[in-house]
Amino acid sequence: MGGWINHRAGAEFPWGTLAVNVLGCFALGFLEGAARGDAVALFVLGRGLLAGFTTFSTLMLETMNLARAREADRAFFNVVGSLALGIFALYVGLGLGESVGTGAGG
Q: Which of 44, 52, 54, 66 could share a disulfide with 24, CB 3.0–4.6 Å?
């Protein structure tokens, strides 16, 4: 998915990695809110599947490559933007998951 996004958006910034990580944060927040204490679902889906989906090591490598290419502004945005958007996506996903979990009698 990240490669496809990078191909479409251009290779000047690792948009694909950013998108995958933000989507993973949203999905983890949603799962956390909807699962409501189901430890097995949270562990298997959240820590297993979604942790494998997101790409922290790729984020770090791409940030280092930007810094080495003297693209400090893009490297900075890659880290700060990823953190800010990731936390926001997790928050939105958590709220949506809680509302779905509550609506289903959770």
A: 54
